[in-house]
Amino acid sequence: MISDDYLKYPKRRYGMDHDRYEWSMLSKRKPVQWPNGARIALWVTVSLQWFPLDQQGKPFRAVGSLQTAYPDLRHYTLRDYGNRVGVFRIMNALEKHGIRASAPVNAAVAARYPSLVQEIAAKGWELVGHGLDMDRLHYEGMPDEAATIARSLEILGRFGKVRGWLSPAKSESHQTPDLLARAGIEYVCDWVNDDMPYPMKAGGRTLHAMPHSNDIEDANTLIAMHQDEDELREQWLDQFDVLYKEGGRVMVLPLHSWVMGHPYRIGTLETVLSHIMSRSGVWPATGAEILDAWKARQ
Amino acid sequence: MKRDPGYYDFLPYNKRPKIEWPNGARVAFWVAPNIEFYELEPPKNPTRTSWPKPVPDVLGYSYRDYGNRAGFQRMMEAMERCGVRGSVSLNVAMCEHHPEIIKACAERGWEFYSHGTYNTRYTFGMSEAQERALIQDSIDTIRKHTGQKLDGWLAPALTYTESTFDLVAEMGLTYVCDLFHDDQPGPVKVKKGRLVSIPYSLEMNDAIAFSVSWVTPRHYAGIIKRQFDRLYAEGAESGTVMCIPLHPYLIGQPYRIKAFEEALRYITGHDKVWLATGREIANHFHSRYYEAFAKASLAVHDF
User: Fold this and answer.
1) DSSP string covering B159-216, please?
2) Does residue A218 sit within a domain?
């Protein structure tokens, strides 16, 4: 039995069915020209993650989570590989082109491997808040969300200024953006509804959503969807070609050290970076730099 | 519950009246963009949860929203460059939420048919009166915002009752897209009125290809071409129908649109293709073949 209330639509109105952000079509917005007349901003993100062995999986398991009965040494170590080995291959690949990444870092990685986080900060990479670890997802009704955010930012903040945030598994509660804005965060990477930054109302302030595609993430294509590296390369290049042609866009390459950092995969990243960086008018930048440039042009 | 939905008799592919499309076309080709609104916090339904993750499912919600903010424009421009009009499978609340998109479709002569009010409201378990109210809402909203008479139905999120087709036929609609049993149109047996089934497709549907089968954009373009080649060849014997159902949030992604446009251009580059809308195909079939198909069909007797 369906109640008659099911046919009532209290939020059937112009715009969105919530007040978090305004409805806006990308095609109707003012075009953006990046610094030095660049056509496209290239934003490489490298997530540094830690998946605890005593995984609870609440309220769901993130991509890359442990799979077997306890103790799942196999997946625990395969993920930790990214922090010990994989990230350094990606670092070298980026350095060849003078690209600085934005690194979403679980606080657990910062606490456990401080020298790694010091090293990427010293290279001028941007540190992006990424929660406590990959088994502490943010969700409606989670205990102590404000404290979780504060602790994540306190630990990562020891290594440099943190202006952006990517929630583990892009999972949020209703109030996550409000809590982030009140904690001083300027941008969030969880909302995949745009190819450009846009403003959100959060905690009585303005928070910005940055376009951090889930589709073309290495973990989504290679791990969740079981595609191969050649297919990923084609999709990255097609993504770049279309955004480059449109102009004034952000191209994000969302990487995970435990995915793209393997010997057999790193060449794919190198090929794609060489292709992109050989084009004129490509501006490689961090998320915060892209946001600042975008805001200056609004 | 019934063992057989009872909507059609048996009519084998090799024993049918011949279908001739306008101008000697072999394939009636139509593109059906699903222009949808998914609610962030839909009311609970006893038969189905709306989001795979706990509400708010930020990733799921914002992925769908991408279609309206960014993907629609890319999809529309690609279709326009290939001279293809859309037959919009519309969540009619889009008329209120995002009228800019409705206007852009209307200006291009696209057809609007109904895909329910929201893609997060399901008809499973509805009473006849409730489902009738849902259909009337679509008829009224599409008339009010586009001036068009509602002719087609694709059930919201593919959810049904046993009365769905009887009601849409009785309320004046002429075709449904919910039956996947054929590559040609066919009569649908209803209590009152006349209704036809127009081949839509789950095989060619970008949602199935990308979100269920996880194929790459280039593979999707490849299967579209293969599907078309075979239906074009068979269409020399008797007219076939090919539909590509789309979702702007999927096909409108930068990394997918290029390969899709190439496939669309491949199809429209053939001369014996009728670039039609759902309504046009339904009208043609209703006026010329409905009775012959009904008559040629063989009654089915269960054991």
Assistant:
1) ---TTHHHHHHHTT--EE----S-SS-EEE--SSS-EEE----SSS-HIIIIIIS---
2) yes
